[in-house]
Task: inverse folding
């Protein structure tokens, strides 16, 4: 059975090959390990194999892992839907938030970000495929939201995040990711981040400009939603 370290090597090789195929600079794409439902020991193993950035969807689970792993200099990314009553803890305990889709949430994160911490890195989640089941602002609402968030004092707007409708059709993958890249370019803001691409479509995402790929299954195996 492959180990987490083996899986990291495999995924890193895929990222490297896709980056070269897209004629992009080496190290222009970063690996975000999506560790939701995985035990703290799995993150510790991934850290030992070289990873530093971890993405969590569930706040209480993430806070527990942060306590268990407080001895490690990990960078924490919140990537799940955000409820208003969770913003304070997110503002206090994370370095990045990839899933902001409403101004109210951004305002609360800004107000609640501790003054002794650097500004919170923010990505706006865009519902590029128009799926009713997905979070994210609409493309039409994006310009006003991005301009408003970029003016908030305790946040740094870094770019966009998207989870397009799943498909194995490479052309459809490319079209969705290219749409996200065009949306970001149209904002005329100093943005440097496109958080898009997962285990099944990272090559397409990198070809269309992804700077973070969010990888869970290919690193840690299938998620265990029954784990307490």
Result:
């Amino acid at each position: 059975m492959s180990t987490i370290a083996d899986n990291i090597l495999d995924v890193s090789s895929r990222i490297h090959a896709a980056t070269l195929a897209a004629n992009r600079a080496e190290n222009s794409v970063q690996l975000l390990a999506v560790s939701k439902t995985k035990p703290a020991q799995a993150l510790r193993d991934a850290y030992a194999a070289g990873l530093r950035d971890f993405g969590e969807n569930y706040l209480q689970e993430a806070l527990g892992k942060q306590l268990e792993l407080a001895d490690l200099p990990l960078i924490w990314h919140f990537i799940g839907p955000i409820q208003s009553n969770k913003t304070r803890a997110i503002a206090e305990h994370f370095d990045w938030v990839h899933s902001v889709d409403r101004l109210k949430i951004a305002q609360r994160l800004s107000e609640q970000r501790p003054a002794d911490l650097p500004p919170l890195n923010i990505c706006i989640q865009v519902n590029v495929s128009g799926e009713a089941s997905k979070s994210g602002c609409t493309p039409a609402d994006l310009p006003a939201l991005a301009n408003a968030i970029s003016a908030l004092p305790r946040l740094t707007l870094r770019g966009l995040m998207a989870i397009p409708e799943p498909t194995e059709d490479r052309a459809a993958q490319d079209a969705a990711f290219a749409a996200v890249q065009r949306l970001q370019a149209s904002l005329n803001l100093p943005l440097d981040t496109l958080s898009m691409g997962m285990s099944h479509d990272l090559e397409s995402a990198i070809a269309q400009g992804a700077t973070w790929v969010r990888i869970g299954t290919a690193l840690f195996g299938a998620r265990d939603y029954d784990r307490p």
The chain has a mean pLDDT of 94. Residues 4-21 form the longest helix (18 residues). The two ends are 24 Å apart (CA to CA). Residues 35-191 form a domain with the TIM Barrel fold (CATH 3.20.20.10).
